[in-house]
Amino acid sequence: MEKYIVSARKYRPDTFNSVVGQITVTTTLKNSIKNNQLAHAYLFCGPHGVGKTTCARVFAKTINCLNITEDIEPCNECISCKSYNEGRSFSIHELDAASNNSVEDIRNLIEHIHIPPQIGKYSVYIIDEVHMLSQAAFNAFLKTLEEPPSHAIFILATTEKHKIIPTILSRCQVFDFSRINVEDIVKHLEYIAKKENISYQIDALNVIAHKVNGSLRNALSIFDQISNYTNKNITYDAVIQNLNILDYTYYFQFVNFFVEKNISTTLLLFDEILKKGFDAHNFIIGLMQHFRDLLVAKNPQTAKLLEYSDNVKQQYFSQAQKLSNDFIFEALDILNECDINYKGSKNQRLLVEITLMKLCNLQHEKKKQLTEESKIEELDKQSFEKNSKIISKTNNYQKEKNDNLNLTQIPSIKGSINKILSKNNGFEKIDELKNLREPFSVDDLRSKWFDYIESIKEDKPRMYQILISKSFEFDNSNNLIKIGFISKVQLEEFESKIKDNLLNYLRTSLRNFGISIETFVNEGNTNEEKRPYTVEERYKFLFQKNPLIEKLRKDFNMDID
């Protein structure tokens, strides 16, 4: 019986062109060989299973090849290449730092460095998992790494770059290996399946590629496992069953139920998932990923980010067109909140079920919101029409001087005062408007005053409460309104938020632009209770009631605020 070799070893790349998904690294290494610009030390970093050690071996074999091809690849025919391929090369040395991490191990390595290669130009030392070396071993290695013999080249490989001391990093050319994308993994699995006469479904290979998170070695291990499980017939159902992966069709069903507001079916489907042994938290994370993919599928420019087969992509495109961006964003927000609160919840299943019910109700809430917005738009339209009539009446005022203009509804319509001013009340010149001085009675003034106060009841409830019980003095000789406040805080708030609008309204509605308002702080007014507003006023108020509060503040070194 022929000895079985796992795919990860049997199909390990032996040339730069056969390395999967690391085009940047391989191109740089090939150019350095072509231009004869080899460094004495390299550091290959990246996740496990992405080709660090493989690239190190190909690089070592290529620089010692006696007949490098025009494409800067090892010939695999010369004595140097054959000796390496057969595992008997004395020019390329590999050391596993995970099990040889002491000072003595490094010293033994250093003793062999000065021995020139038997075949080829270079003695290459590949040290895998170099971050496992002890601090003393690193220190013993430093000098040799910085100034090795001309024939020695070091290639260090690690999955944990952050554990490498800076003095080592500064002596190496650093290459960062990236995770291999799903498309490249699927293509490589297809290549091996055809070589091994294994039938497969492309969706099944996609599931494997997604599962391994960019590690080709892991993908090949799972590929061998599923191949044995299915007797060389890799199907989608077999993969999700063997790897205990939740079928993506479940997520499509859930979204359809959310749109249909079908709470009962949604909860029953979630119960089915739990009975199959799937983790509820992983389900929520998977559903978040599904909504992310739907959002990506809605835009042709981002659709290329979907790493699925064409069949699955089409399902995403179809479902994405049925959903609005707002729906997807709000769904993601709800799911993210569930993800954050999951570990701290005492009833995790209930938390997930509530989340699913919220998602079912999301479409209903959206429609309700749109209905309310349409009602508001209709009210705004009616207000605009009503306001237009008021402005029209104002424009005709010159012809009917004694006609009493009905403006009592103006305060309840937002922005009507400014619209009246913008129309100049029928006057063609602004100077003519500013010089308007029509007489009015105190009763007229008081009526307009309280009309305006009622108009700010909802938007500025605090000022409404202050002004509704406050009286003012009116100097008829120069149209001056005097109003006092019990604190500087009240006065400043009136000045900044109310005064200008109130004055404009009184001038316009009473048709007298000589009206002015004078404000002051009336600290001596005994008719109104002076209430503390600022932090200092409140502290002073409390101190007057109980002087011991000052001693308490000093004893505990407290600030007033």
Descriptive account of the structure:
With 561 residues, the protein is an alpha/beta fold. The chain has 5 domains: 7-176, P-loop containing nucleotide triphosphate hydrolases (Rossmann fold, 3-Layer(aba) Sandwich), CATH 3.40.50.300; 182-242, Helicase, Ruva Protein, domain 3; 248-365, Up-down Bundle (Zinc Finger, Delta Prime, domain 3); 403-521; 531-561, no CATH class. The protein has 25 helices and 10 strands. It has helices at 7-10, 23-34, 52-64, 79-85, 103-113, 135-146, 166-169, 182-195, 202-211, 216-229, 236-242, 248-260, 263-275, 280-297, 310-320, 325-342, 348-395, 416-423, 430-434, 442-455, 461-468, 488-497, 499-510, 535-545, 548-555; strands at 41-45, 92-96, 123-128, 152-158, 173-176, 199-200, 233-234, 473-475, 480-485, 516-521. The strands form 3 sheets. The chain has a 5-stranded parallel β-sheet with strand order 2-3-4-1-5, with helices on one face. The N and C termini lie far apart (87 Å). Residues 397-429 and 525-529 have low confidence and may be disordered.
